[in-house]
């Protein structure tokens, strides 16, 4: 191998490596460009996660999986892991009439919260929120310089697990770092993807072909590079390494609460876990109302004052319509209080500002900690 060749090989390797991590495709001709006026504090890129990981002093980072496209899936941990004295898997422990056989959670153990960043790659609001949360854990301030002392203090009382992006493949394929100020239709095109003739798959049509292979023009950011929507993997035999890793953490950590962060062109809200037991649905409904009140008090986008979640287990008119999804699986594998949260995107239709998008995330996180502090389930033998 001559010198010139080895240098060009080196350069090529570098370009492939750099490209595989951070290169972002361009929108199709005629579609709006990626917004260029994104504020510094809005940290929705994979490179923002990588930069934050370099700054960690208190949190411990682990690579818990590689995505279908070869990207690392990270988890960051704060607080010592308690000895859960586990002697049975969760459902066997419940059948033995006490979840403490799966995980002992006495009042002198640290509660555990599990933040699962967007498994849908067009929903970058959760990445931005979690990167700012990491910064608060480390420094006390978000990337606007605003202090969150109450939020930072929770890191001393809890074990906290943060997966900043649940689907780095989808995030990498998304040409937009935000849909702020863009039409919902553009988010739909690149989020759920298109068919070969350019027809948009849309929601919920994008779930009707899974894995998303075959009649695919643009593979939506919903999916990993193998066409898997992690929200709707086969949880009894997972197809994606990302899903397995997210589930494995729940089984090892027995989180008191797990949240899956999503976004839509909407006002913010919690989605009920439609396949959780009634006692857990009631807790989720209570939390959803507490959170909506916090949005109202904070002068943030919110649902109506009297809004609330259903405790029905399906559509009574036309069942089945409520799927057993990632958050259902998390509950049944670990007993965790698990639900989906939907943030706005800031599209033309929902009109939310960058400031509000970040505040919605941080208020959600604060309310999650305070809810578990005040309403923890104690499991003891
Ligand atoms: Zn989503």
TrEMBL record:
Record-linked InterPro entries: Peptidase_M14
Protein origin, superkingdom: Bacteria
Domain Peptidase M14 stretches: 61-184
UniProt keywords, alphabetically: Carboxypeptidase, Hydrolase, Protease, Signal
Signal peptide start-end: 1-23
Pfam families the record matches: Peptidase_M14
One annotated GO molecular function: carboxypeptidase activity
Protein name: M14 family zinc carboxypeptidase
Organism annotation: Cyclobacterium jeungdonense
């Amino acid at each position: 191998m001559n010198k010139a060749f080895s240098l060009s090989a080196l350069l090529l390797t570098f370009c492939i490596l750099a490209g595989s991590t951070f290169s972002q495709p361009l929108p199709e001709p005629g579609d709006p460009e990626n917004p260029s006026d994104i504020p510094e504090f809005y940290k929705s890129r994979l490179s923002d996660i990588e930069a934050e990981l370099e700054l960690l002093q208190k949190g411990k980072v682990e690579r818990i999986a590689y995505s279908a496209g070869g990207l690392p899936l990270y988890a960051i941990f704060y607080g010592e892991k308690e000895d859960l004295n586990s002697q049975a898997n969760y459902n066997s422990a419940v059948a033995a009439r006490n979840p403490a056989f799966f995980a002992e959670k006495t009042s002198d153990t640290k509660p555990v919260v599990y933040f699962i960043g967007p498994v849908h790659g067009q929903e970058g609001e959760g990445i931005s929120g979690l990167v700012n949360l990491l910064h608060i854990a480390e420094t006390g301030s978000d990337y606007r310089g605003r202090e969150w002392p109450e939020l930072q203090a929770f890191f001393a009382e809890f074990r906290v697990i943060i997966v900043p992006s649940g689907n780095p493949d989808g995030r990498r394929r998304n040409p937009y770092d935000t849909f702020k100020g863009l039409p919902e239709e553009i988010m739909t095109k690149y989020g759920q993807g298109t068919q070969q003739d350019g027809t948009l798959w849309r929601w919920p049509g994008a779930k009707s072909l899974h894995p998303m292979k075959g009649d695919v023009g643009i593979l939506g950011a919903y999916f990993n590079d193998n066409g898997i929507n992690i929200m709707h993997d086969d949880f009894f035999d997972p197809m994606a390494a990302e899903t397995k890793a997210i589930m494995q953490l729940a089984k090892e950590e027995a989180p008191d609460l797990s949240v899956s962060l999503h976004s839509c062109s909407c006002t913010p809200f919690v989605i009920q876990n439609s396949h959780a037991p009634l006692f857990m649905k009631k807790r989720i409904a209570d939390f959803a109302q507490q959170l909506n009140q916090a949005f109202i008090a904070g002068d943030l986008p919110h649902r109506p004052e009297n809004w609330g979640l259903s405790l029905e287990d399906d559509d009574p008119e036309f069942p089945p319509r409520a799927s057993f999804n990632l958050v259902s699986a998390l509950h049944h594998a670990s007993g965790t209080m698990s639900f989906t949260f939907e943030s706005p995107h800031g599209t033309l239709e929902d009109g939310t500002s960058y400031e509000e998008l970040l505040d919605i995330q941080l208020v959600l996180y604060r309310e999650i900690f305070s809810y578990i502090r005040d309403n923890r389930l104690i499991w003891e033998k």
